[in-house]
Specification:
The complex is a heterodimer of chains A (663) and B (583).
Chain A (H helix, E strand, L loop, with lengths): L22 H7 L7 H14 L8 E5 L2 H5 L2 H15 L4 E5 L11 E4 L5 E4 L7 H9 L8 E4 L39 H6 L4 H9 L2 H11 L11 H10 L6 E6 L8 H8 L1 H15 L3 E7 L3 H16 L15 E7 L8 H8 L23 E5 H13 L1 H5 L9 E8 L5 E6 L4 H8 L9 E6 L5 E4 L9 H6 L8 E6 L4 H15 L5 H17 L8 H24 L3 H4 L3 H9 L1 H10 L13 E3 L9 H5 L5 E2 L7 E2 L9 H5 L5 E3 L1
Parallel strand pairs in A: 1-2, 6-7, 6-9, 7-8, 10-14
Antiparallel strand pairs in A: 1-3, 3-4, 4-5, 10-11, 12-13, 12-14, 15-18, 16-17
Helix pairs in contact in A: 7-11, 7-14, 8-9, 8-11, 10-11, 10-12, 11-14, 18-19, 19-20, 22-23
Chain B lengths: L2 H11 L1 E4 L2 E4 L6 H7 L23 E4 L6 E2 L10 E3 L3 H16 L15 H8 L23 E3 L9 H9 L5 E4 L6 E4 L15 H5 L5 E3 L3 H9 L4 E6 L20 H11 L3 E4 H22 L5 E2 L4 H10 L13 H16 L7 E7 L3 H6 L5 E2 L2 E2 L3 E4 H10 L21 H4 L6 H15 L17 E8 L2 E9 L1 H12 L7 E5 L17 H16 L11 H11 L5 H7 L8
The chains are: A alpha/beta (663), B alpha/beta (583).
């Protein structure tokens, strides 16, 4: 099979032993080392095949990232293949990554010969026959259609909206995600055909490591993992650190609840990450790189393995890359599931085979990191931005965004919002645009309460700050932070005490246990929050006293934990509590003094009673009650024994007469 | 050379301001080092002198101008012009809160705790004036680990400072314990959370010395010894190790290194011990056997280098981690076990005592000795050679319990015949001492003469690995001394990778030797160890004609009357042992 790595003729001398510096450009526009019309045609033909130009058969693309597979893409693919075989139609079914609109998964795109790709939403296995029948007949089913893609020289399908005009996609600026859900992530050729690895090849040929660092500094790219440290400056420190060995580490230990940006990038476009890493390694003088990725991402790991093998086979990784004298070896290290290993010094310990526990900085990894050597640790999204910066220039990158925050940011949008998924917006976009324009607002006619940004380290943004810009610095002014990109939308049925308790529970479990304020302080904070939602019937007089005592302590605890914890995990651990306290103090007070949960989310604080007028005495509630708290004779009104009730709400769910009242 | 004064000038120029006072600093040092030099106290719980800071306890936090959070002074390097407040309201609030948080999950049973009065957490609570139970929440349930013959672990009292883990891994290279679990479920445990007795623990007790609370302590044998003392049928015999006399005084407020040999003997008698012997006697005996074994190995092409066998932690370490070196270990029992063996055989026979009536107690600087005494090889006719081992700390407790104060005791002398010792035997208490004593006697055995200079400087001091060459007649004997098992491991690795010059190697498990053993008084620091070492050297310098083991008259008599010659049949039966692989 002809690939972009095939030689055009005997004159092409590129091999792993004798690499050609112009290899990447040559495969797209070549041949460059000799003139031959025949070779030019051959190369053009190979590129056309990779780009799927001049198709004679229909193509089916299925979003088969982890999110797609979770939504049933596996069954959809099986159904498509079965139906196509039954109809004896020759097609290619291509598994692509996630295009971003997770709430529309399983997502299928079909391109007929000569026609554009048309995307369909919610294609479960049972609608596949109808979808294929109608689409192959030239009448894509309107109820499933999401939109069509634009492509040069291809006539659009009449009556089908364009995907880039869809409200989910229109406000986005997709610099990191353009290939996700579009190209086959298992094909290096598709990445190269889209201009991939050119930035790396040019960098090797034309720039010194210091120039690369300068370009990245000039671009204003800041770390996308949450901290926001200027990436180029970090590289510069490592470049200047004298050492016989340096390391580049890609941090793909994405652990925030509700965050899946890195997973989607790796699953959908792994070569973009590898190219970014290759440039970064060159810039700091590292010959060895690690990708530290959580073991809970098997598909991403698989895609990375394939991508590393391909890039090595093409001579884009390994020894004397493109005859530049630069060598790079990239290894995958899977994490064992500790949240704290996303912290850079804990991550270093974990790669070294030690328990993942942070250590004090300084010394910073840039001078004393992995195995004691200068090490740069960058997040997946940061590195995925690098090829774009080098290809299009620092000015291009800096042209988008705010004063302090340049480029774009990818968010994982989830929670109480109509359209969930992965969105990439220009810095400076407002939270309101993300939630209401891209996300489509709050479903089921409920009202917006807050969005939790930045995961367990972040904070919440209430209604009054919805127009705040996505920007590292402005988010801090409202007690939140950029974080790695989790955005969880909450409506009026979400209780903010409950949210704070959730995050505190998470941090408390995931603390490494090393420093006292984080280990013991988060435990105490969690216990205080738990006491707020402890049901009245389980509370003794002492407990009530402790509840008030806890409330008096919580702010002091939060202050000390922030002030003294060893690593970022601890220093930011109180943020969810401080942030919810700042904007929703009244909700806390209702829990503390009234012993009620205004949102109705803290079931333990609810009290139930049976309306004797409505109750028919059917006994269903009494039989379903797990604690036998409901008494009453058949066909006469029942009643609830409050001392026995655990507030689970089963009786409300099972009552056919709406006789159980929650208050 | 010319640039040096400039550098010094520059260093003198660098200053920081602490609590509005300007102090000089040296580039590269941490804030804590600078503060301590200036006598400014900030508390610490996790700092271990000589090991890299881990920044776990956060008690040493100070306020530094320009830093958003509080800064751990143990790990933050100073920089010129830094402005620091060590005791601002914010720093004190942080420290108090941290101690309150620790106390929230700490059992309040100080009155029952062996560290009552020497507990750092207790001291901190007092220092910071903690008077309120601010976080009154249920304590984490914990199980006591009493499985080890040497060490008791009480995880309920553990504050997870991690010092034990670091000492075990970094100083001893054993790594028997580590952090397990996450978050508030974090605890210190062994591999697979099994008992310490089946772990790779070598029982050295260095973890106890660094533990700030009562979470680690020795297996207490005081009650067993008291019961024996009360039993009229028992003849209770004590032996005390060479280092005890220079460390016990510290428990009674004396300066480190004060020699309380005679007072200790008097105290032991007052408490009811029937005989008091000096383990230094069997140290001399060990030298006779070991030096003979060395001469034998060298002359017959035996396994070299020969390695000492008096330190039971080291023995378990070899059996467990380096069984390939078991043939290198001298087959000599340790002085404790030699003494135990001859008390219940020759001594009992000579004095017409039924050995089953003898209750043999050894007083040791060491927790591993408790393990050694329980080894199945260390029995004779089904009877253990040693019945109970007391550490220095336990002896101090026992003396106090009897209402005695060492400072008031009239010195007494030990019993014959095992009370006589050379000062070479006494040197066993410090690292390098066994080697020095052995070289003195080996010289005599091979040449028939005495070394001109008995003090061998190359073997003295506290460096982790030392060594040199001793010329004995025509023979060049290359010797090495290692102290602390991480240092010993490095030496073993050297030998494995081809180092062949060595004839004799002394290894002491604890860094500094028995004077810094795991059974010594709590609060042992490097200055105390130095003072104790000096005391032993001083005793040796004043030894007169009793500075070599072969001049010990009672040892000579023992050979004449009973043992015959070193390495003879009886020696082999009573004074030598064998080793078991534990991998």
């Amino acid at each position: 099979m002809t690939t972009l790595n095939s030689h055009c003729c005997k004159l092409c001398r590129h091999s792993l032993d004798e690499p050609c510096p112009d290899r990447v450009e040559c495969r797209m526009q070549g041949p460059l080392c000799h003139d031959s019309e025949e070779c030019t045609q051959r190369i053009r033909a190979a590129v056309a095949v990779v780009r799927r130009e001049n198709r004679t058969k229909p193509l089916v693309f299925v979003g088969a990232g982890t999110c797609g597979l979770g939504a049933g893409a596996g069954q959809t693919i099986a159904a498509i293949e079965r139906e196509l075989a039954d109809r004896d139609i020759d097609t290619d079914v291509i598994r692509v990554g996630c295009v971003g609109l997770c709430s529309a998964e399983p997502l299928v795109e079909i391109a007929l010969p000569g026609g554009p790709r048309v995307a369909f939403a919610n294609v479960s296995a049972d609608v596949v026959p109808r979808l294929l029948d109608e689409t192959l007949a030239g009448h894509p089913p309107a109820d499933l259609t999401l939109g069509q893609s634009r492509a040069d020289g291809i006539e659009p399908v009449a009556g089908v909206p364009f995907l880039d005009e869809h409200p989910f996609f229109a406000p986005q600026t997709r610099w990191v995600l353009p290939n996700c859900g579009v190209i086959d992530p298992a094909s290096i050729d598709e990445y190269i055909a889209g201009g991939g690895y050119r930035a790396f090849a040019e960098t090797l040929r034309t720039r010194t490591p210091a120039e690369v660092c300068d370009t990245v500094i000039e671009s204003g790219l800041r770390g996308r993992g949450g901290g926001g440290f200027p990436t180029g400056r970090k590289w510069h420190f490592a470049l200047g650190a004298p050492s016989d060995r340096k390391y580049l580490v890609c941090n793909a230990d994405e652990g925030d609840p509700g965050a899946f940006m890195d997973r989607a990038v790796i699953e959908g476009d792994p070569h973009r990450l590898l190219e970014g890493m290759a440039i970064a390694a060159y810039a700091i003088g590292a010959r060895h790189a690690y990708i530290y990725i959580r073991a809970e991402y098997p598909l991403a790991i698989e895609r990375l393995r394939i991508a590393i093998d391909q890039a090595t086979e093409y001579g884009l990784l390994g020894f004397n890359i493109l005859d530049s004298g630069f060598n790079l070896d990239i290894r995958i290290k899977t994490g064992a599931g500790a949240f704290v290993c996303g912290e850079e010094t804990a991550l270093i310990h974990s790669i070294e085979g030690k328990r993942g526990m942070p250590r004090p900085r300084p010394p910073y990894p840039a001078t004393n990191g992995l195995f004691g050597k200068p090490t740069v640790i960058n997040n997946v999204e940061t590195l995925a931005n690098v090829p774009g910066v080098l290809r299009n220039g620092a000015k291009w990158f800096a042209s988008v965004g705010t004063d302090g925050s340049k480029g774009t940011k990818v968010f994982a949008l989830s929670g109480k919002v109509a359209r969930t998924g992965l969105v990439e917006v220009a810095m400076g976009t407002t939270v309101r645009q993300i939630v209401f324009d891209i996300g489509g607002g709050i479903p089921e006619g409920r009202t917006y309460k807050a969005v939790q940004i930045g995961g367990p380290s972040g904070g919440c943004i209430p209604e009054q700050h919805l127009d705040i810009d996505i920007d590292y610095d402005s988010l801090k002014t409202v007690g939140a932070m950029m974080g790695s990109g989790g955005l969880v939308v909450m409506d009026d049925k979400n209780c903010m005490v409950d949210v704070a308790k959730f995050f505190m529970g998470f941090i408390q479990r995931e603390s490494c246990g090393k420093c006292i304020p984080c280990r013991e302080g988060t435990r105490q904070m969690l216990q205080i929050l738990e006491s707020l939602t402890r049901p009245h019937r389980d509370e003794t007089g002492d407990d009530a006293l402790r509840r008030f005592q806890g409330v008096l302590n919580i702010e002091r605890l939060a202050r000390v934990i922030k002030d003294t914890s060893l690593c970022g995990l601890g220093q930011t651990a109180p943020n969810p509590v401080l942030s919810t306290l700042r904007y929703f103090r009244d909700e806390y007070e209702q829990h503390i003094y009234e012993r009620t949960c205004p949102a109705g989310a803290c079931t333990t604080l609810l009290r139930y009673r049976i309306d004797a007028d409505k109750c028919r005495g059917c006994t269903v509630c009494a039989r379903k009650c797990p604690t036998d708290a409901i008494m009453g004779a058949v066909r006469s009104p029942h009643y609830i024994v409050p001392e026995k009730c655990i507030g689970c709400g089963t009786c409300v769910d099972v009552c056919k007469f709406d006789a159980v009242i929650k208050e | 050379m010319t640039s040096k004064p400039d550098e010094r000038e520059k260093a003198r120029d660098m200053t920081i301001t602490v609590n509005n006072r300007t102090i000089d600093i040296t580039e590269g040092e941490t804030i804590l080092t600078a503060l301590r030099r200036e006598g400014i106290h900030v508390p610490t719980l996790c700092n271990v002198e000589g090991l890299a800071p881990t920044g776990a306890c956060r008690l040493c936090v100070v306020e530094v101008d320009g830093c958003p959070g509080l800064v751990p002074s143990c790990s933050m390097p100073v920089s010129d012009g830094m402005r620091i407040q060590t005791h601002s309201a914010r720093a004190i609030e942080a420290r108090r809160t941290i101690v309150e948080l620790l106390l929230a999950d700490h059992p309040d049973d100080c009155l029952y705790c062996p560290r009552n009065g020497s507990c750092q957490l207790q001291a901190l609570a007092e220092e910071l004036g903690i008077r309120q139970r601010r976080h009154d929440t249920p304590k984490t349930p914990c199980l006591l680990d009493t499985s080890s013959p040497s060490i008791v672990r009480d995880p309920a009292k553990c504050i997870l400072c991690g010092k034990c883990v670091r000492v075990c891994e970094e100083i001893q290279d054993v790594a028997a314990i580590d952090f397990i679990g996450r978050g508030s479920q974090t605890r210190i445990g062994t591999a697979f959370d099994h008992g310490l007795n089946v772990s790779s623990c070598i029982n050295c007790g260095q973890c106890i010395l660094v533990c700030p609370t009562g979470a680690l302590r020795e297996q207490d044998s005081v009650d067993a010894v008291m019961n024996a003392l009360r039993d009229p049928d028992k003849i209770v015999v004590a032996q005390h190790a060479p280092s005890i006399s220079v460390t016990l005084g510290e428990a009674f407020g004396l300066k480190p290194g004060a020699d309380v040999d005679g007072q200790m003997v008097a105290a032991l008698r007052r408490m009811g011990f029937d005989r008091v012997f000096d383990t230094s006697f069997t140290a001399d005996l060990t030298i006779m056997e070991e030096a003979s074994e060395l001469v034998h190995r060298i002359s017959t092409g035996g396994t070299l280098p020969m390695m000492t066998s008096c330190s039971p932690g080291w023995i378990k370490f070899v059996e467990q981690h380096h069984p390939e070196f078991m043939a290198n270990l001298s087959t000599c029992k340790s002085p404790q076990q030699m003494m135990g063996a001859i008390i219940k055989t020759w001594y009992a026979e000579r004095h017409g005592i039924d050995p089953s009536r003898i209750y043999s107690v050894s007083i040791m600087p060491c927790t591993a000795k408790k393990f050694e005494a329980e080894r199945p090889e260390m029995t004779h006719d089904g009877m253990p050679d040693i019945d109970a081992v007391l550490t220095t700390r336990e002896l101090a407790r026992m003396i106090t319990m009897h209402g005695l104060d060492l400072r008031d005791m009239e010195p007494d002398t030990p019993d014959t015949p095992f009370g006589e010792r050379s000062t070479a035997g006494k040197l066993f208490g410090a690292t390098g001492g066994v080697m020095e004593a052995a070289v003195r006697t080996a010289y005599h055995l091979l040449t028939g003469e005495e070394l001109a200079e008995l003090k061998i400087d190359a073997l003295r001091g506290l460096a982790g690995v030392r060594g040199g060459t001793v010329t004995i007649g025509d023979t060049q004997v290359n010797v090495a001394v290692a102290t602390g098992l991480a240092n010993a491991r490095r030496l073993l690795e050297d030998i494995k990778s081809g180092r062949t010059d060595l004839h004799f190697v002394e290894v002491m498990t604890c860094p500094g030797g028995c004077i810094a053993g795991g059974g010594q008084p709590i609060g042992t620091d490097i200055d105390a160890v130095r003072a104790r070492m000096k005391a032993l050297y001083r005793i040796d310098a004043r030894g007169g004609r009793r500075r070599t083991s072969h001049t010990n008259q009672q040892v000579k008599q023992l050979y004449t009357e009973f043992l015959g010659a070193p390495l003879g049949h009886r020696s082999h039966e009573l004074l030598h042992t064998h080793y078991t692989e534990r991998t």
